[in-house]
Write a structure and sequence with these properties.
Distance between the termini: 60 Å
Subcellular location: Cell outer membrane; Membrane
CATH architecture of the largest domain: Beta Barrel
InterPro entries: Bac_surfAg_D15 (IPR000184), BamA/TamA_POTRA (IPR010827), D15-like (IPR039910), OM_assembly_BamA (IPR023707), POTRA (IPR034746)
Largest sheet: 16 strands, antiparallel
Shape: globular
Domain POTRA: 39-106, 107-184, 187-275, 360-433
Structural class: alpha+beta
Number of helices: 13
Strand order of the largest sheet: 20-21-22-23-24-25-26-27-28-29-30-32-33-34-35-37
Protein name: Outer membrane protein assembly factor BamA
Number of domains: 6
CATH class of the largest domain: Mainly Beta
Subunit structure: Part of the Bam complex.
CATH superfamily of the largest domain: membrane protein fhac: a member of the omp85/tpsb transporter family
């Protein structure tokens, strides 16, 4: 630590006390003496300098021959030397007519070396420490760097790391800094205990928080590392979980992390007080703003009498009301919810009080902490900017949007007074986190074009160059297929809140008797109409090339007995050798109220799309598809999740019959227990040719698997499927009538670190003789 200068009396002997170096390190202390009486100096003597020139030092102290130096002038000279940041110690005295300046320069760091580190490489540690080659050496900085290295290891689960720093004097005021690291063993979280929880069991609460107990897969996820900041975020997640489920009085009494002395592992204890569960009582609006339409405001209310109290619904109402008021010409109106608890019947009456708030404007928005993400990426998530009326509710909405980006580990928004009483400064504090991902997966598909062992690898970046853009490169393959794709997404196309995605792809599939290679490109635009509703429009160009897997197809049509096993319309395309072009426009709507797509529990997902082909190319059709998935929690504590899913599709030719290439296929995703294209219209040779219309429906119950830790990500399911595929414009088509098929079965679902995996075993219950069964199915899939 740099000591403050001490000024002695004029009669004291002048001296510069410099403590000896210990182990090559320079101990910093300062002792200066200033003459109390003025003296005229005609020369200057500089001592102790090695790299800084005498002239530079003379300029610092303001030396001029013939100048009259008083005690205060000498004190100012000493302060100037320290302010330069070049000297560890400095003293200025007068000796007769000579101004004597004695300095000790800071040592310069020659190299920063790390020894003993295996888990964190040198490049990562260099980003942690402040000392760098050619920087000045300070003991205080060295001590801080040691703590920074310890903290970096703690975040990887190695809290017992030991870091020793040494300084090697190389002469000429240069030093090497060496950090000797003993990494130690990885500290694991052995258990997470909850006390005081009655409404929800430990397993359910452990699913809410991001900190997990160690399990055999923790080396992949790294979520069993104790971090006090993560624990604080988990406490907030628990509060939101309870507040949104009626427990308005919920509070966390204590949370602690204790080290088990026998194992060295950490045990986390969280004590909660749930309180009573409330429902909404009377919902009212009390407005003092003249001209505000309370009937219009009432239509924005998300809270309903009799439903379970939810803080999220109250906040959604605040945002909707504030937007409605601002749009109606009341930008300074404030909406404040006032709750009145009725302890007898456990209800909360909510009154939304609308007042004309204080006129305040946003003076500026300050963004701090973003080392990678550009400022404009953060600013564009605000519906307000500098000079606009300040509205706290809209500020909270911006915070939710920033958190949803998943670019930051923390997002905090605060305010402070501006330059005048009606000015507010909004401070946005964020901490960037890693957004790049490398994915690799291995799976086995038992039906469809990708049957067999599937390998997939991808590199993606969700915040490319800190611009908020997303880029992904993926390669995959199996024994019968190869896939290549590249996509780029700009979430604010041309400065508007429109997500533009550009993609290129190629799929090569060996379909047994013939091969198909599809190469194409897409461009699509997504426009959010509300927080839950998005409109999409896009264009797709695809070029399909068919070739024979053998020689039979190439003998057609000269040999009427030849048959390569492909449908007739495919054989014709193989014989002609011509590529098939599809040029189409796709548009639709997506409605989604499900928060966690990887582990959905409640909410509705609906999608309606229409594809119109005929902008050049060979295809001429209009294809309409719709599907919906509704999740509901049937028993919160038991983690029983119900799922109802349904879908439908129809394709109709435009000025021509629908070709077999453009008809629907039937996959085990819609109907388990049957092979890929195991049901539906066929030609006279028994080849599947697709259908013009399909319907499908699913009912499913998901539940945790007993005796397995929740953190492993396994759960089971029982299901029942029903589907039909019918109608065809292909000449000679058979089995074209509407005939339902049905199945029931069991599933194991694994939210693996690589991708969601699903194992299904189904028994066909309603089937026809020509159908192809496939009872077991294993695939990589997503929720929708």
């Amino acid at each position: 630590m740099k000591a403050a200068p001490r000024f002695l009396s004029a009669v004291s002997a002048a001296a510069l006390a410099i403590a000896p170096a210990v182990g090559g390190a320079v101990a910093v202390s300062v002792l200066t003496t200033a003459s109390a009486q003025a003296a005229v100096v005609t020369s200057i003597s500089v001592r102790g300098n090695q790299r800084v020139s005498e002239q530079t030092i003379a300029d610092f102290v303001g030396y001029r021959s013939g100048r009259n130096y008083s005690g205060s002038d000498i004190n100012d000279a000493v302060r100037a030397l320290f302010r330069s940041g070049l000297f560890a110690n400095a003293a200025v005295v007068t000796s007769g007519s000579t101004l004597v300046v004695t300095v000790e320069e800071y040592a310069t760091v020659n190299q920063v070396l790390f020894q003993g580190n295996r888990r964190l490489d040198d490049d990562r540690l260099r980003n942690v420490v402040e000392l760098t080659p050619r920087s000045r050496f300070e003991q205080a900085i060295l001590d801080a760097d040691v703590e920074a290295i310890v903290e970096a290891y703690s975040r990887t689960g190695r809290s017992d790391v030991t870091v020793n720093a040494s300084v090697v004097d190389l002469g000429e005021n240069r030093v090497n800094v060496i950090f000797q690291i003993l990494e130690g063993d990885r500290t694991k979280i052995a258990r997470i205990n909850f006390t005081g929880n009655n409404a929800f069991g430990d397993r359910r609460l452990q699913a809410v928080i991001s900190t997990k107990a160690s399990n055999p897969l923790s080396w992949l996820t790294r979520n069993d590392v104790y971090d006090d900041q993560r624990l604080a975020a988990d406490e907030e997640a628990l509060r939101r979980f309870y507040f949104n489920r009626g427990y308005a009085d919920f509070r966390i009494i204590s949370s602690s992390a204790e080290v088990d002395p026998s194992t060295g592992n950490i045990v986390i204890n969280i004590e909660v007080d749930e309180g009573d569960r409330y429902t909404f009582g009377n919902i009212e609006i009390d407005s003092t703003v003249t001209g505000a339409d309370t009937n219009a405001l009432a239509r924005t209310i998300s809270t309903r009498s009799g439903s379970v109290y939810s803080a999220r619904e109250v906040e959604d109402t605040l945002i909707s009301m504030s937007e409605r008021l601002a749009g109606a010409g009341f930008p300074f109106a404030e909406v404040t919810p006032v709750g009145n608890r009725n302890f007898d019947n456990r209800t909360i009456d909510v009154t939304y009080i609308v007042d004309q708030g204080q006129r305040a404007f946003i003076e500026r928005i300050e963004i701090v902490g973003n080392t990678r993400t550009r400022d404009y990426v953060i600013r564009r998530e605000f519906d307000v900017s500098e000079g606009d009326a300040f509205n706290q509710v809209l500020i909270r909405r911006a915070q939710r949007r920033l958190e949803a980006l998943d670019f930051f580990s923390t997002v905090r928004i605060s305010t402070r007074p501006g330059s005048s009483p009606d000015r507010v400064i909004v401070v946005v504090q964020v901490e960037d986190k890693s957004t790049g991902e490398f994915g690799a997966g291995v799976g086995y598909a038992t039906g469809g074009e990708n049957e067999g062992v599937n390998l997939e690898g991808s590199i993606s970046e969700r915040n490319f160059l800190g611009r908020g853009q997303a880029i992904r490169i993926g390669i995959g393959g199996s024994t019968s297929s190869r896939t290549y794709n590249l996509s780029f997404t700009e979430p604010y196309f041309l400065g508007y809140r429109v997500a533009a995605t550009f993609g290129l792809y190629q799929n090569r599939n060996d379909l047994g008797d013939y091969e198909r290679t599809s190469t194409g490109g897409t461009v699509s635009f997504g426009l959010p109409l509300t927080d839950d509703l998005t409109a999409n429009v896009g264009y797709n160009y695809q070029r399909d090339v068919y070739s024979a897997d053998g020689t039979d197809c190439t003998d057609l049509p000269g040999d009427p007995d030849a048959n390569c096993g492909a449908p007739a319309f495919v054989q014709g395309r193989i014989v002609s050798g011509q590529a098939r072009i599809k040029s189409s426009v796709i548009y639709g709507l997506v409605y989604n109220t499900i928060e966690d797509r990887n582990d959905p529990r409640d909410g509705l997902f609906m999608r309606v799309n229409q594809e119109v082909a005929g902008l050049g190319g060979d295809a001429r059709f209009i294809r309409t598809t719709a599907d919906a998935s509704y999740y509901m929690t049937l028993a919160e504590d038991a983690e029983l999740i119900g799922l109802l899913r349904g879908g439908a599709g129809n394709v109709t030719g435009l000025g021509q019959s629908v070709e077999g290439f453009d008809q629907f296929e039937m996959s085990p995703r819609r109907l388990r227990g049957f092979a890929f294209n195991g049901i539906g219209p066929r030609d006279a040779a028994g080849n599947f040719i697709g259908g013009k219309t399909y319907f499908n429906a699913t009912a499913e119950l998901q539940f945790p698997l007993p005796a397995l830790p929740r953190d492993l990500g396994f759960k089971g399911a029982v299901f029942a499927d029903a589907a039909t595929l019918f109608g065809s414009d292909v000449a000679g088509a058979q089995n074209t009538n509407l005939e339902w098929r049905a199945s029931a079965g069991l599933s194991v679902i694994w939210q693996s670190p690589f991708a969601p995996l699903r194992f299904d075993y189904a028994w066909p219950l309603v089937k026809e003789p020509q159908d192809d069964e496939q009872r077991f199915n294993f695939s990589v899939s997503t929720a929708f």
